[in-house]
From TrEMBL:
<dbReference type="GO" id="GO:0005829">
    <property type="term" value="C:cytosol"/>
</dbReference>
<dbReference type="GO" id="GO:0003677">
    <property type="term" value="F:DNA binding"/>
</dbReference>
<dbReference type="InterPro" id="IPR010992">
    <property type="entry name" value="IHF-like_DNA-bd_dom_sf"/>
</dbReference>
<keyword id="KW-0238">DNA-binding</keyword>
<comment type="similarity">
    <text>Belongs to the bacterial histone-like protein family.</text>
</comment>
<dbReference type="GO" id="GO:0030527">
    <property type="term" value="F:structural constituent of chromatin"/>
</dbReference>
<keyword id="KW-0226">DNA condensation</keyword>
<dbReference type="Pfam" id="PF00216">
    <property type="entry name" value="Bac_DNA_binding"/>
</dbReference>
<dbReference type="GO" id="GO:0030261">
    <property type="term" value="P:chromosome condensation"/>
</dbReference>
<protein>
    <submittedName>
        <fullName>DNA-binding protein HU-beta</fullName>
    </submittedName>
</protein>
<dbReference type="InterPro" id="IPR000119">
    <property type="entry name" value="Hist_DNA-bd"/>
</dbReference>
Length: 111
């Protein structure tokens, strides 16, 4: 079972926290929770490192995480009408793969 399938099958309407993700992956992959936890920690660390360098992380069948630069912009407070300059910053964006979109769409149709 792939991680994508595992995530989509796990209660679509609930919010999955880290502990629940570890439990579900350990059950479906028949591995100890400690190994799954270490694997997820290492994955998150490696992804953060690559994204901080400006690289993208492509997880085939799941999606692409990218680091993008948002230019500075002017924001207006609607209450006070005061204009504020928002400085440029790096943000992380996620684009889901077509297979992930399809699996989520199919799971919503079967409710």
């Amino acid at each position: 079972m792939t991680i994508t399938t595992c995530l989509v099958k796990f209660q679509i309407h609930s919010k999955m926290n880290n502990k629940e993700l570890i439990t579900e992956l350990a059950r479906s992959l028949d591995l100890p929770k400690e190994k799954i936890s270490a694997l997820l920690d290492a994955t998150a660390k490696a992804m953060a490192e690559e994204l901080s360098k400006g690289n993208s992380v492509n997880m085939q069948g799941f999606g692409v995480f990218e680091s993008r630069r948002k230019d500075e912009r002017v924001s207006v407070n609607p209450r006070t009408k005061i204009r504020t300059l928002i400085p440029p910053k790096q943000v992380v964006v996620f684009k889901p793969s077509n297979s992930l979109k399809d699996k989520v769409k199919q799971s919503n149709l079967h409710e």
